[in-house]
Design a protein that fits this description.
The protein is of the alpha+beta class and 480 residues long. Helix content is 30%, strand content 27%.
Length: 480
Amino acid sequence: MRRFVAIAIIMIFIVILNIFVPFRVNAIDNTDYVLDTARRGHRIPIPLTYSVKKVIANLEIGNLNNAQDLFIDQNNILYVADTGNNRVVKLTRDGKVLDVFTGPPERPFNSPKGVYVDSDGDIYVADTGNRRIVHLAPDGRFVEEFVKPESAMLSNLSFDPAKIYINRMGYIYILNESNYYGFLTIDAHNNFRGYIGATRVTATFRDWIIRNFATEEQKARIANLTAPPYSNFVIGKDGMIYATAVSIDRDQIRKINSVGKNIYPSGEFGEMIIGESGPVLPYFVDIAVDKNGIISVLEREGCKVYQYDQLGNLLTVFGSKGKWKGAFQIPSSLAVDTDGNIYVLDSDLNNIQVFGPTHFINLIHQAVTLYSEGRYEQAADLWKQVLEIDANYELAHRGIAMSLYKNGRWKEAMEEYKKGNDPAGYSTAFAEYRRQLFRAYFGWVVLSLIILTTGLILGVKYLKNLAKNYFAQYVYGEFN
């Protein structure tokens, strides 16, 4: 009996742990995988999605040093903010050095942390140590600089640009270090144009408990909490700002529209890392969006690359912590070229690893793209090819289910939603299937009800007449 009770207590503890400690790392670290949608944190191994094609290191101009940013232009030329060496390095995809920029001679770069290149080849450098943004011509000639704008709203602001991007209107979007107001924007004349995408402090159940039951010192500490800061961002081809926020356990990936609203599906992204001192929140350091809208984010604590579609579905996770090929030590930035290759910059290993997509992930990308365009049948054909490679890939089942759903094949859609661990989709398909059955058999149901009702009425009348006859026979028979 005691043994049974002990086992029961252990099982209850495991269930509670699964509920309150989400996203646990519990599988082989160097295996590509996705996360089970039904069991939070459980990894499902999948076929290889990306493999290392090349490692760019040991440059002829000397090694990189604490490099913090990587940008790939429309011609697939790489630009690296080589922070520790106070320079920007221009490279081919094969790692050949094309040029090195150190800034204007009279005031060279000082710890540059961000770089952006426009369609004309002009280079914009977040010269963080000098608290400015430097504009260079394609050949490296100094054009202009942008410093802290004149504005009463910025009077107490320390201007420390770390990451930059320029939109179609020519506005410069700036991620300012230790700034929680969102992205600072300036125009081509260095005029302040406001903030966009400000993050907010959200109250949680834990905060409510602290406010009502904690000591005054603990209450004072939570009162001083600031909004979660952004760690990086890009502007996609759709004009949206794709950004990563840190120090929070959900909504770390954001898609911000022109009015500053996050329109990306809300959710928990990444995984909670269980370290020696306890659970550690995922820390996304960079984000990239390819031509099809596929989102790749780089996570520093677990040294992983997570990839999502526009609906927030996880497509793959790859990478690990280490010093071997395919692993990272302190990953700092990533970028995607026009062929879908992913480049990961490591500020500790001082290298760039180039990951090429496999046939498996290319099929997934094509299916996701067709799905997003509303071409569900074509997407379903590709999802079937995905399942031929990996029969347990949940998203493929959900994609096929949607195609079946759109074609009115509710019962088959229910089966695929079930295989895809999608209770919401299953419920929607079941509701339509139930409605279909009702419409198909409505006439027969009504006719059956009419016949049954008529039969009951006639039966009652017959029984009444029979009872009346029996009564008459009994009465008159008795008296006669």
